[in-house]
Amino acid sequence: MTENTDRISIAARLRNNFLTGLIICAPLAITIWLTWSFIRWADSWVKPYIPTRYNPENYLQFAIPGTGLLIALIVITMVGFLGKNLIGRSIVSYGESVLHRMPLVRTVYKSTKQIFETVLKEQSSSFKKVGLIEFPHPGTWAMVFVSTDAKGEIAAKLNEAGEEMVAVFLAPTPVPTAGFLMFVARSKLKLLDMSPEEGVKLLISAGLVTPEYKPSPEGAMAAFKDLPLSDTVEPQRAAVKR
After folding, report:
1. What's this model's pTM, rounded to 2 decimal places?
2. How far apart are CA 32 and CA 79, in angstroms?
3. For residue range 172-187, what is the model confidence (pLDDT) as tens digits?
4. In this structure, which of 69, 108, 187, 206 has its CB flanked by the most CB atoms within 10 Å?
5. Under a CB-based contact definition with an 8 Å cutoff, are residues 203 and 176 in contact?
């Protein structure tokens, strides 16, 4: 009986050690693989366009991973720097005017530029808030990422009742690369204190990785104000008497 118990305890310890090692090694291996894959993808796109005389691999006996990615970052930064001065803005405006004359290209360019300007704008609040909406039916809640307020024709059509509408992105689990764009009333949206990064973790893990709840100061003050006067004053009086 003792031998069987010892065997079970040894097997349980080995299983626990394996699971602990898996928790440590799996995220590290996946992170390294994704980073390496991204570097190789960037190199495969950039290196063919590097002139031979400027490619350091032609002077070395081995390949340097990340050369294409580094050169791409330098070129993009230089283009952004040149695009801020008068000459650069003139060149960009001329290039955009040429693209706007092309029937199919102008639609793709304008849409892509608008998306990048909205997402990468420093003061933009797009996808910086997480909320809950009742979906697919009342009583069932789904997590969404708040995009922006409804604008243009959609706002004119949906705001007829006087209720402000908000555009939200409903992403599926566990791969949030596609989803649904939905317009909901602001009063039907429950904002959460968690960050978008924490929301993505919760979404990808199917609810297994729950972020720690840290109430905002505004929410704590609102909860304090909602308390009855007797609940806040009487304990203080009792403490003073003691």
Report:
1. 0.52
2. 30
3. 887 777 788 889 888 8
4. 69
5. yes
